[in-house]
Design a protein that fits this description.
two-stranded antiparallel sheet, 5 helices, single chain
Length: 135
């Protein structure tokens, strides 16, 4: 069954929270974790990933936290997913380099190519869906 990882779910939740509070005020990982009742460690790591890709700015100090660097309509779900997931493919064999897969059926597989097309469609839908749309 196609399913987003908890890491991705928490990332989307954190991005949504930042977008809702995006009036220039900093938001802390603790605030997001408490409001959504999700593990602080996950939220903190997700926000660090967002800062690494410059989706958010990290502000230091007693009134510090995180703020979005772009408007919610400029951030797609694929931006969020790609930030926190190294590989978000349907199956392992869809890696760009098929030689890196551990699948023993890669040479005779009949479903890899059709599933690659399904993956393209899913990614396209995620790319077309903005953070603003899930507010």
């Amino acid at each position: 069954m196609l399913k987003l990882s908890k890491r991705t779910e928490y990332a989307i939740m954190a991005a949504r929270y930042l977008a809702l509070k995006n009036s220039g005020n900093c938001v802390t990982a603790k605030e997001i974790a408490e409001d959504y009742q999700i593990p602080y460690q996950f939220v903190a790591k997700v926000l660090q990933d967002f800062a690494r890709t410059e989706m958010v700015s990290s502000i230091q100090g007693s009134k510090g936290g995180y703020v979005l660097n772009r408007l919610p309509e400029e951030i797609s779900l694929i931006d969020i997913i790609s930030t926190v997931e190294e590989n978000h493919q349907l199956t392992e064999c869809m890696q760009e380099d098929a030689n890196k897969t551990s699948c023993e059926h890669i040479d005779c597989c009949k479903i890899r190519d059709p599933l690659i097309e399904v993956q393209r469609k899913i990614d396209s839908l995620f790319a077309q869906t903005s953070l603003k749309q899930i507010l």
